Amino acid sequence: MKTILFDASLCNGCYGCQMACKDEHCGNDWSPIAAEQPTTGQFWCKVEQVTRGKLPEVKVQYTPVMCGHCENAACMEAATDGAVYRREDGLIIIDPVKAKGQKAIAEACPAGAVYYNDALDIPQKCTGCAHLIDDGWEVPRCVDVCATGALTYIDEEDVPAEAVPMPAASELHPHVHYMNVPKRWIYGVLVDRSINEVVIGATVKLLDAEGTEVARIATDEFGEFRFKELDEQAYTVTASVDGYEDIALSADATDKDVVLGDIFLSAVA
Questions:
Q1: What's the domain range around 77?
Q2: Which distant-in-sequence residues (6+ apart) come within 8 Å of 157 by Cβ?
Q3: pLDDT of 47 above 90
Q4: Most buried residue among 165, 180, 190, 269 by CB atoms closer than 10 A?
């Protein structure tokens, strides 16, 4: 069984995988594997772009979403008359003839990776480029064009232990895995308001909800600190700097990354 592995640390957001998928399937009818993909409205390999944080600290995260060819495929369960089937190599195919009129197939996918072609009255999705695999290709087009190696096509048993199933369909055991997706982060800058200068080399601590220290870091030459790879929970950022009043700021990273921005220290009277 093959798996597509996405390494977020290698992705530069070029959208090459998404464009290659369109190039392979738009204007081409690969029946009986797949009918032609529409030029608009469908992305069998869709790069999702998420902007994290806010000015002055903004990060952009790119993540490809595609059919997971799931072990417990919801689309197969929703189909009738054998309209969705699994090949011996594990790829799940929607028969463009038998699936005609079966909107339930598209509606069943929790990842939104199955689309409905109203013009042809059929559900459609990534085929894993099964037509190319049958023609001797070793990898799907999306993997073949990835210039950075962020996408690889590997055996299921070779999936790294730190990788996780594609979150959008994780409960269905998808054969698409992600690794090195950045966890939560907290950012801030210590500033002396009285002289409009940043505070360099100050120790900043991060405490969890129980008040236990989970990390500490010194502000850099720009007065900045960044706590990375954090669990999704509430924290408190503290700092005790000689000559200034102590600070303790709430930083709830449960739902999103935290940008505290400029933190003005007050000199001890």
A1: 2-179
A2: none
A3: yes
A4: 190
